[in-house]
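Hypothesis: this fold can be encoded by more than one sequence.
Test: take the structure tokens below, design a sequence, compare later.
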């Protein structure tokens, strides 16, 4: 909306509302906007108009020089004008006619005045068409009252952003294009379209994003509202405020604004509550179309009453002259007709307050269910009364839509199970059906209180003993209907109340079929479970190895290991030891792996088992080289006392145990067997080794040359690049901790007897950086390996996975 700093508040607004600041409220602002004026009002310079034809054609005459700071008006009322002046905005395309005035400067010079035309008053003439006058950019007021205009096009005022007042009342207007009165560039405050012949009003000409004072559509012939452009409300924006005067029109049915504005939720209609709608004098029929808005607005209207809320009903007769907002919402109903889907011979009443359509087809001599049900815009449920007819079968496509079904007093002989399922959430009355002798079993899943069974007499046998359980477990507080619900007992040849029906009365034997079925199932499952249990027990280690393989984590940033491979085998096997020392270990080191062999790398003098257990905890991969001598050595633990060298063999056995336990407890570790002597799994008595040979990582010498075997071992161990990458990431935290502790704790983290840090790779001493006293002895050392980069900066010491 353009900034109108030239507008002033009318003094009457202050006189009416008082001069105290508490009165300067929204009402005061509204008054100021709608009664605004300028200092130049009444001081415009009038331009003359001259007729050029007896048919009412005319032009504007310029009799003085153009003053850029002045405002002008064109006024010609109670005349015979049939068109706008031909020299206004070049709308007239009759070249022959315009050439007559080409040399008349008094006519041609009017173009200079376009931007300074402030007011036009052509009231009480015979104008039939409003042309495109958008060149009059500063036009404030346009009066075309009492002319013969029949249509308004959406280009007439398309760029008149400063136009505030438009009066086209007392014309013959029958149609208005959508988006004519309110657009992105048109910000009208007052529009008078009263006393025309409009039959419809489009919402795009009623609802505005900016404030407006009034759109007066009084005394037209409007019957309905339209939305030809499919406008929807933007929930993120506020509309209005404004006032729409629809008095004395022909609106019979209250507009369905939810459908009209495509609202997902009627509560969004609150976005329009800033607008006032005056429907007084309209022949409103108060029915179901009004109920949703009545319920939505009733509480607000009690607090915000306005005179124009005093809308009265003109029909139906029982509601005539009743104020709309004094109505009982249950009175706002619609009687549906055959064209609305109401079955022939039935009466249909839509009651939105109950969210229900009541369809009454009782006593209509029906032999079958109605084909369809009426559809409602306002109600979700259907209450169907089919009592006292001759219906034998209640199957229908709409059963799931019913909230209530009354088929009492019909000739039902059977109700199938599927139909009962579809009526599970429906209140059902099947009373007084004398031919109905059997009830469907699915009836037991219904709420007994929602099922009427009075004056029924069914055959009760051991097959429908469920009736007794249904009545007991789903008992209803009111048992009035059950008093006449009877069971005919074939064995007694008489009827008894259904509430008294029991297995004893029916002389039923206990049904043991379910018990037998359970026994059969248990008997069949027990052998299967035993077989599964034995299988799991026998192959428990194989299953464990398979599980560990599936859940193994590969080298990443989570953890750094001191050794990549820990090797265990029978070191007494000279041939095997040579292969390990001359081929396997060099190849692994060549690939960049760090290798641990207990018989070479163990600390001499320390307990071997403790040392191996401690180192294996820092290994990522365990490599067991399986040979005939290893199998014979570890045949049975109980044979150790018969062996020549039990200690050596126990060490080998313990190495396997340490590796196995580490493998089980850490899913980042891997266990690999190298089958050196082609040992068969069946020849291995050790269960864990046998399991790994069956489902684990195994490298066999069979049909492979030495290089292929080594390649397979390297492949099983994994990518050295990923391992080294994980190792480098782990060093960063370790480096910082080591250096910080060495500087702050005076190297106390080292062994008490160790005071010198010697670099074995380059012979660099860290002593000068530590400033530690006393002077260390010559024989005490702490082994630390440095990366190549750390030679230049001792603060980046990179120990290999320090403890």
């Amino acid at each position: 909306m353009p900034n109108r700093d030239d507008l002033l508040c009318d003094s009457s607004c202050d006189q009416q509302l008082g001069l105290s600041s508490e009165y300067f409220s929204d009402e005061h602002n509204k008054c100021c906007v709608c009664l605004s004026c300028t200092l130049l009002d009444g001081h415009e310079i009038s331009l003359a108009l001259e007729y050029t034809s007896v048919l009412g054609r005319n032009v504007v005459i310029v009799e003085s020089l153009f003053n850029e700071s002045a405002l002008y008006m064109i006024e010609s009322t109670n005349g015979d004008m049939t068109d706008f002046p031909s020299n206004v905005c070049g709308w007239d395309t009759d070249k022959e006619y315009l050439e007559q005035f080409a040399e008349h400067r008094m006519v041609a010079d009017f173009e200079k005045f376009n931007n300074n035309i402030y007011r036009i008053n052509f009231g009480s003439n015979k104008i039939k068409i409003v042309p495109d006058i958008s060149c009059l950019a500063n036009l404030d007021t346009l009066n075309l009252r009492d002319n013969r205009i029949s249509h308004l096009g959406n280009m007439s005022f398309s760029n008149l952003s400063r136009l505030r007042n438009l009066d086209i009342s007392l014309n013959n207007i029958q149609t208005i294009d959508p988006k004519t009165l309110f657009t992105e560039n048109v910000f009208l405050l007052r529009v008078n379209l009263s006393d025309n012949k409009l039959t419809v009003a489009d919402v795009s000409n009623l609802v505005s994003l900016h404030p407006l004072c009034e759109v007066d559509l009084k005394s037209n012939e409007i019957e309905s509202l339209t939305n030809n452009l499919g406008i929807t409300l933007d929930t993120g924006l506020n509309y209005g405020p404004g006032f729409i005067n629809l008095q004395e029109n022909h609106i019979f049915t209250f507009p369905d604004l939810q459908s009209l504005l495509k609202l997902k939720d009627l509560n969004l209609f609150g976005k329009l509550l800033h607008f006032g709608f005056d429907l007084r004098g309209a022949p409103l029929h108060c029915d179901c179309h009004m109920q949703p808005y009545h319920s939505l607005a009733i509480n607000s209207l009690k607090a915000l009453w306005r005179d124009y809320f005093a809308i009265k009903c003109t029909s139906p007769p029982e509601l005539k002259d009743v104020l709309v907002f004094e109505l009982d919402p249950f009175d706002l109903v619609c009687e549906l007709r055959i064209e609305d889907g109401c079955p022939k011979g039935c009466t249909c009443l839509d009651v939105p307050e109950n969210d229900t359509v009541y369809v009454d087809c009782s006593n209509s001599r029906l032999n079958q269910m109605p084909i369809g049900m009426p559809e409602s815009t306002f109600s979700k449920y259907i209450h169907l009364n089919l009592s006292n007819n001759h219906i034998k079968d209640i199957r229908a496509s709409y059963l799931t839509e019913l909230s209530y079904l009354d088929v009492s007093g019909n000739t039902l002989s059977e109700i199938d199970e599927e139909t009962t399922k579809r009526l599970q959430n429906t209140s059902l009355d099947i009373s007084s059906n004398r031919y109905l002798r059997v009830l469907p079993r699915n009836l037991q899943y219904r709420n007994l209180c929602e099922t009427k069974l009075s004056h029924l007499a069914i055959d009760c046998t051991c097959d429908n003993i469920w009736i007794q359980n249904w009545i007991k477990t789903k008992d209803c507080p009111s048992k009035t209907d059950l008093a006449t619900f009877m069971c005919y007992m074939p064995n007694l040849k008489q009827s008894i109340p259904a509430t008294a029906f029991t297995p004893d009365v029916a002389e039923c034997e206990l049904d043991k079929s379910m018990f037998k079925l359970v026994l059969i199932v248990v008997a069949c499952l027990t052998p299967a479970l035993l077989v599964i249990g034995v299988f799991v027990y026998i192959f428990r280690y194989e299953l464990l190895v398979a599980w560990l393989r599936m859940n193994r984590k590969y080298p990443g940033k989570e953890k750094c290991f001191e050794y990549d491979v820990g090797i265990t085998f029978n070191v007494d096997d000279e041939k095997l030891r040579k292969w390990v020392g001359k081929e396997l270990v060099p190849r692994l080191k060549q690939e960049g792996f760090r290798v641990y062999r207990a018989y070479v790398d163990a600390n001499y003098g320390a307990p071997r088992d403790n040392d191996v257990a401690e180192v294996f905890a820092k290994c990522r991969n365990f490599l067991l080289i399986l040979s005939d001598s290893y199998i014979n050595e570890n045949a049975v633990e109980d044979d150790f006392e018969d062996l020549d060298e039990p200690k050596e063999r126990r060490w080998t056995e313990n190495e396997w145990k340490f590796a196995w336990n580490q493998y089980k407890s850490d899913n980042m570790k891997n266990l690999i067997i190298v089958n050196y002597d082609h040992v068969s799994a069946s020849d291995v008595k050790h269960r864990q080794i046998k399991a790994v040979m069956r489902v684990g990582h195994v490298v066999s010498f069979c049909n492979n040359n030495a290089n292929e075997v080594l390649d397979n071992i390297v492949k099983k161990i994994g990518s050295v690049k990923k391992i080294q990458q994980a190792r480098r990431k782990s060093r960063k935290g370790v480096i910082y901790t080591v250096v910080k502790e060495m500087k702050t704790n005076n190297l106390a983290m080292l062994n008490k007897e160790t005071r010198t840090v010697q670099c074995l790779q380059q012979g660099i001493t860290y002593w000068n950086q530590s400033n530690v006293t006393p002077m260390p002895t010559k024989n005490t050392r702490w082994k630390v390996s440095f990366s190549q980069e750390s030679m230049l900066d001792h603060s980046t010491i990179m120990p290999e996975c320090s403890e």
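The longest helix spans residues 513-538. The two ends are 75 Å apart (CA to CA).
Hypothesis status: open.
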